[in-house]
Design brief:
Pnp Oxidase, Chain A; 6 helices; 30% strand
């Protein structure tokens, strides 16, 4: 009889334990569901606030900048290439974002190039020298970024500040002007027609402004839009949305416009938005990019940068050189 009672009590405790675990699991499930619903509600609220605030700024800027209905339709099509298309106002305020969206729209709709050029002028963005095939250093406009490289010296970043009949005036952006000496120098620059170089010499200076002899012997360094070189550089990849953790990979080649890199575990696919974090010697970059295509049976991904500031492109190119 005692044995039967003990068995009965053990079974009763077992059932009580099962009931406790079930209730606890149920409470956890309900709590997780409530937290998820709160997160979804908060995310939706933030998205609505973002859409409303962006729309308010956008429709305020339209008449302020003298834009018409055709401009509105063009901006709307350009905004489709942003991670958040509802933020059309960013295209009107940021020339780097404008250029990134414009390039992709022109690639799909060739007849929009003239309209985009007209819109750029209305927005007051500098026209730059994109698309011009230069034949002389005299073709370089003011405010155009360049790189100067002398033998056994690091690349020096500068910008064209004057273009006279006798020389090209280049303002050095930092205190590296003292590293350049009078004599031969290779000058590199890029626009949408490609990456170019010519050999000339430093003839003088005025403070941080270096005087460079003109050259009619411009050479196309590479036919592609941005200088690209093969590298073996570690990089961390993370999906732009979703809070995914970063995974380690390695670049196969790198340029000022995009890169090719290993696809760890073949987990990334074309058209995904990703963040790249990498650090060449003396530099550190966090870049938003889009996966253009996947090759080698999914082992390699090819990306292009999104809305990357010109100064960051120049730093990447300088690190490659």
């Amino acid at each position: 009889m005692l044995t039967a009672l003990t068995k009965f009590l053990d079974q009763q405790r077992a059932f009580e334990l099962i009931d406790f675990v079930f209730v606890l699991a149920l409470l956890l499930a309900v709590s997780m569901l409530v937290l998820f619903l709160l997160y979804m509600f908060r995310s939706r609220t933030l998205l609505i606030e973002l859409r409303e605030s962006s729309a308010e700024v956008y429709y305020f800027l339209l008449p302020t900048l003298g834009l018409d209905g055709n401009d509105h339709q063009l901006i709307k099509r350009m905004a489709a290439f942003q991670p958040f298309p509802q933020q059309k106002n960013r295209i009107m305020l940021n020339p780097q974002i404008f250029d990134a969206c414009a390039q992709r729209l022109i690639a799909e709709e060739k007849d929009t190039e003239a309209l985009i050029r007209k819109l750029r002028k209305k927005l007051g963005f500098p026209p730059g020298a994109e698309g011009i095939l230069p034949i002389s250093s005299r073709d370089l406009p003011r405010d155009f970024p360049v790189l100067l490289v002398q033998k056994r010296k690091p690349a020096v970043q500068g910008v064209v500040v004057s273009n006279t009949e006798s020389f090209l005036g280049i303002m050095i952006k930092d205190d590296t002007a003292s590293s350049l000496v009078n004599g031969p120098v290779n000058l590199y620059f890029q626009n949408r027609a490609g990456f170019f170089t010519f050999t000339t010499k430093v003839t003088g200076r005025d403070g941080l402004v270096i005087h460079i002899e003109h050259s009619e012997q411009l050479k196309r360094y590479q036919r592609r839009k941005y200088l690209r070189k093969k590298v073996q550089l570690p990089v961390f990849i993370r999906l732009y949305q979703g809070g995914a953790r970063a995974v380690k990979s390695v670049f196969l080649d790198l340029s000022g416009g995009g890169a090719s890199l290993r696809n760890p575990g073949q987990q990334f696919q074309a058209e995904q938005q990703i963040e790249l974090s990498f650090a060449p010697p003396g530099e550190k970059f966090n870049v938003l990019a889009r996966i253009v295509r996947v090759s080698r049976d999914g082992e390699v991904i090819h990306v292009e940068y999104q809305a990357l500031e010109q100064s960051a492109r120049e730093r990447i190119v300088r690190s490659i050189l």
